[in-house]
């Protein structure tokens, strides 16, 4: 395993498994779990249940974290966007 990956052991569907991700991805996944007020293993189990079979769990977690961050950025961008003016000039 690469030294830049952090490995975590989890029990998913009653089976021991381990996932190795970059620390930044683990940080985002922990933020997601906190935002949803659920433990990290529950979030990982949900992603595992929803992933397509050929995709690895590590890949599914990375994509899930990326999509969550995209939503955060879009929400922030939408909040900062100026409303269109309806004044007639």
Automatic annotation (TrEMBL):
**One Pfam family from the record:** RHH_4
Gene3D superfamilies found in the cross-reference section: protein bp1543
Q: Which residues form the Ribbon-helix-helix domain?
A: 6-69
Protein name in the entry: Ribbon-helix-helix domain-containing protein
- Which source organism? Acetobacter senegalensis
